[in-house]
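Subject: Interface between my chains keeps coming out wrong

I've been trying for a while to get a sensible model of this assembly. When I model each chain on its own everything looks fine, but I need the whole thing in one frame so I can look at the contacts. Pasting all components below, labels as-is. Any help appreciated, I'm running out of ideas.
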Amino acid sequence: MTPKTFKIKSFGCQMNVYDGDRIGEMLAERGLSAVGDRDDADLVVLNTCHIREKAAEKAYSDVGRLRREDGTRPMVALAGCVAQAEGAEAKRRSEMIDIVVGPQAYHRLPEMVAEAARGARPVDTDMPAISKFDALPRRRRATPSAFLTVQEGCDKFCTYCVVPYTRGAEISRPWDHIVAEARALVDGGAREIVLLGQNVNAWEHGGRTLADLIRFLAGIEGLERLRYTTSHPVNMGDDLIAAHGDVAELMPYLHLPVQSGSDRILRAMNRSHSTDSYLRTIEKVRAARPDIAISGDFIVGFPGETEADFEATLQIVDAVRYASAYSFKYSARPGTPAATMEDQIPREVMEDRLQRLQSRIAGHQLAFNRSTAGLDTRLLIERPGRRAGQMIGRSPWLQSVHVQTDAAPGTMLDVTLTAAGPNSMTGALLRQDAA
Ligand code: 5AD
Ligand code: SF4
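Reply #2:
Try treating it as a single job with all components included. I did that and got this:
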C-alpha cells in the first residue's frame, strides 16, 4: 500500500535534525502528510545515530516497538548513520525494516517508498558525487532558530570515531546554495541560523572561508543571529576568531571539543592538536570576544587512559571554565582503530570518571550562569515554558531563559537575567520590540 501519512524520528546530532526536516519537506512535497503520533503513520522514518553503541542499539529496539497493538505495522524506513553502517545487514536483523537509506542518499527516499509499496526492500547507502542537496525542495517554513548544513563529512579520522565512515569525506556546499537556503529560511520565519557541519570551520568554497560566509550571511535582512557548530580545534582560523570580535550577529558561543586533557591520549586519539595549542586557541577567542561561552565534548575511558590522564582532563576543564560541556564514556565502535587497542578500560572505572567529570563541569556551568545574572540582554523566544504565561528563549550565550510574557516564538525580547540555575536562567521583561 502506498503510504499517505508519515512520522520522522531523529536521534543524535543536529545534522540529523536537519536531515529529518529535509526528509519531511520532501515527503510533504510528494503529497504525504505529517502526523504527530507514529501509531497514525503509514510510514515511519527512523533517522538513526551510530556514534556510540547505546545510540545504535536504540535503533533496533525502536523498530521493534513500531508494531501496533492490533498486530499491524507501518512501512519502516531505517535512515541515518546506523543505516549507513549496517546496510543490507539491517534487513536481516529485523524483518520489519522495509527501506534502508544512508545520510547521503535520502533524496531517493520517495522512489524507495514506491518500491517498498510494491513489495521490494530497497537499500541505498551510496555516497553519490551528485549532492542530495540539489534534489531537495526549497525551504519554506522555518523555526525561529533554524539549522543549515554547510559542510558534511570528516577527513580527520580520530581513532574512536565512526563519522568518517558514516558521513563520508569532507564536502563543502557551494556559497550560492547556502546563501539561497539562508534567505529562504529567513523568509520562512527564521531569526537565527545555525550553520552545521561535522567540521563546520573547515568549510571553504572558491577560496572563501567560514568567516567570509558568516560576514556575508550577517547582512541578510531580518536575520538577527548566527551560530555554527561543530568546530575542530585545528581549523579555528584567525579570520574566524576575528569575526567573533566584529560581527554583531555572530553569537558569543563556541562549541570546541577537546575530548581529553592528556597529550598522550590526544595522540592516541589522532586528534592533531595538543592541550597547549587548544588552550592558546581559547585564549585568542577570548581576546576577540571576552564574554564568549565556551562549550566542549569529552570522552572518558579511552583505551589506555590512566588516572593521571583523567586528572589532566579535569585540569583542562578548570583551565577553560566551560559554560557547558558534553561528556561520554568511550564506546568501542566496530571498524575504528581504537576498538582493537590494548588496555580497554573497565566499565566501573569509566562510570566513576564520568561522574567526577560531570560534577566538575556542572560547577563551571553554574558559575558561568551566575556570572550572567543581573545582565541586561536579548532573547530569541523559541517555545512555551511549562508554567502558564511563560515562554522560553535563548540568550546570546545559548542559555535557556524562562520569562513571563505572551510574546510569540520568533520575537526578540529585551530582558534582565534575574536568577541563575544549573541548567537555565530566569529573565524579566525590559521592553518588547515593536515587531
Ligand atoms: N565513544 C564515546 N564518545 C564518542 N564520541 C564520538 N565517538 C565516540 C565514541 N566512540 C563523542 C565525542 C564527539 C561527540 C559528538 O561524541 O566527544 O565530539
Ligand atoms: Fe550520530 Fe555522528 Fe551520525 Fe550525527 S553524524 S547521527 S552524531 S553518528
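Reply #3:
Confirming on my end. The longest helix spans residues 347-372.
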